[in-house]
Retinol dehydrogenase 14 (Gymnodraco acuticeps), 308 residues
Amino acid sequence: MYFLYTIIASLAVFFILKWLKKRRYCTDLRRLDGKTILITGGNSGIGKETAIALAMRGARVIIACRDPDKAEKAVREIKLKSHSLNVLHMELDLANLSSVREFCKSFLQREKKLDILVNNAGMPGVLEWTDNNFSMCFGVNHLGHFLLTNLLLPRLKECAPSRVITLTCSSYKYQKLDFQDLNYNQLPFFTYCRSKLANIYFSQEVARVTEGKGVTSYAVHPGFVQSGWTCHYSILFRMLVQVIMWMFFVPCEIGAQTVIYCAVSDEAAKHSGGYFIDCRPATLRPFARDAAVAKKLWEASERLVNLA
Ligand SMILES: NC(=O)c1ccc[n+]([C@@H]2O[C@H](COP(=O)([O-])OP(=O)(O)OC[C@H]3O[C@@H](n4cnc5c(N)ncnc54)[C@H](O)[C@@H]3O)[C@@H](O)[C@H]2O)c1
């Protein structure tokens, strides 16, 4: 009898886990021939899977990464899996604003087109500082991408219709921004939540400042994904999280689906400034839709990165 109960319980757990991990795929099969796509942090995790999928559709894909060796290895893998030779990497460290400026300068010199910018790179909750003394999460996840997008906006406008896709996280809802302490660096998880909330306000403000100029903007929660973000933590934490990830998180290929959807779908384009989960628009908590806060963050960020 116990044997029967064990089998029934195992089957129940199996189907519950399967249901929890069920996700929608992007069913829009549009090709992207002739388009140039820039993906930050495209050498691993969701960014790499996005790069493979978009290169497969014919786009020229540029991954912007910190480590040239890892980037080169990723480029080889993306080419192999996508059967495309139109993939390359460029050096970018979002934790260093001079690196962001250097990157944009050489990108604009080298590349005549930019149709889709994917602000994918991200740091999980860590209590570190960037080269410019910003908290690592706020500095990399928000400020680095803020400067990058602003410096590339003229090219995105020239290439309109064009898109800016910014990876955020549903954990945005656990924190609010404190304008007295944007550089908050105390509890790692909350530091991460605040940076991901900043990504949402940023994405909305990109939509507002580019309204009528052919640039659309999307904030994407990719789901909880089995990627490499745990590499920033101790081996013990990694082992524990690995089990949880295996049980509840989805593979990177699925995590990339909503990004791909926002890159190609006409339906998504009707919701510029929107928040997307599982290949469809999702509703944000009211405080995360506050246009005045989004504008205030934009202006504060302009000052912090010295954007005239
Ligand atoms: N994995 C999840 O469950 C999950 C959930 C919600 C949101 N996200 C978001 O998805 C995005 C992709 O994360 P992932 O899960 O693929 O993790 P990942 O760690 O595999 O990828 C993050 C990428 O960002 C790059 N990066 C980090 N700091 C950088 C810097 N200073 N300059 C340039 N590149 C830098 C890393 O090298 C890496 O390639 C992140 O923005 C993350 O916040 C992930």
